[in-house]
C-alpha cells in the first residue's frame, strides 16, 4: 500500500487577510501534515503569505499552488523561490501554473499565447538560474534573455545569480489540466497539482503520466466533508464544481468544463455551463452529478471516508491537499496518517 501524505491548502484570501492561516499551518505541522500551500489570483500574491507562514513554522514544506506565470518573469519567480528556500531551510516547493486567458489578459495584461511551450520555457529558465552553472541566456520566443526586442537599449547581457541557491534541485510542481500540459508536466516537473482527480478514473491521465520520473509527486486538491448525510456532504463539492465548470472561463473556452467532459461527463458539463450563463446558479449546482462530486472528494460518514481513502492509496496520488478548520485537519490526520 502506497504512503499517502496530507497537505494544507489555504487557497485564496478573499476580501481580507484570513488571520487564522498561521494557526492552521502550525496545527497542520503538529498533526504531521507534509506541506502547506498558498494560492494567488487577482488579489493576494502567493509568496508573501508563504514567507509569513514559513517564519511561524519549522518543518512543514511550503508550496505555491499556484504561482501564475504571467504575474512575474521567470527570473523574478526564481529569485522569490530561491530566497524563500534559503529563509525556510530548504522547505520550498515552487508550484507554477498558466492560469487562464481571462486572468492573464484581463488582470496581468499579458497575451495568453502557447501556454504549453511558454510553460516549458519558463521552467527551463528557472532551472538554469537555480543550477547556477553560468550566465543565463534563452533564445526562446516567450522569454528572450537578453532581451533585444522593441524598446531595447541593446546593452543587456547574460547574468548569473549573485546569491547561491540553497538547492539547485528545488522541486517544481505544475498545475495542469489539458492532456498536452499534463504530459509535459510528467516530463519536466517534479510534481503535478491537479485541480480535481478521480482515483476511479485513473485511465484519464494514465498515458500522460507514463513519462514521469521516479519520485514524481501528485498532490491533489481534495475537498473533505464529514457528514452522516451524504447528500449534504456533497453539496459544497457540487457548489465548487458548479462555479468552476459554469463560470471559471469563457463560454467558448473553459478548461475545467473540458476536463469534466474528458472524465466522462460531457453532457452534464454542457448543461452546467448553460444554466450558469443563464443566471440559474442553483440549478447549475444541482446539475452537477453526485457521482462526479463524490469521486473527486472525500464525502459522507467518517467510516465511508476511511474506506475510500484506500482507493486514493491505490492511485498514483501521493498527497491529498485539504482545506478546512483545525477540527477537520485533526480528523483527517486520524483517518489518513
Number of strands: 11
The Rg value, from CA coordinates, equals 20 Å
Estimate the helix proportion, in percent. 40-55%
CATH topology of the largest domain: TIM Barrel
- How far is it from the N-terminal to the C-terminal residue, by CA? 13 Å
Supply the helix-strand structural class: alpha/beta
Tell me which CATH architecture of the largest domain applies here: Alpha-Beta Barrel
Which quaternary structure do these chains form? Answer: single chain
Low-confidence stretches: none
The major sheet is characterized as: 8 strands, parallel, barrel
CATH superfamily of the largest domain: Luciferase-like domain
Give the class-level CATH name of the largest domain: Alpha Beta
What is the total number of structural domains? 2
Strand order, sheet with most strands: 1-2-3-5-6-7-8-11
Question: What this model shows, in words?
Answer:
There is one protein chain. With 337 residues, this protein is an alpha/beta fold. It folds into two domains: 5-224 and 301-336, Alpha-Beta Barrel (TIM Barrel), CATH 3.20.20; 228-300. It is built from 14 helices and eleven strands. It has an eight-stranded parallel barrel, surrounded by five helices. A two-stranded parallel sheet has the order 9-10. Helix 6 links the parallel strand 6 and strand 7. Helix 2 runs parallel beside helix 3 (74-88), helix 5 packs parallel to helix 6 (179-188) and helix 8 (230-247) packs across helix 10. The model has no long low-confidence stretch (mean pLDDT 95).
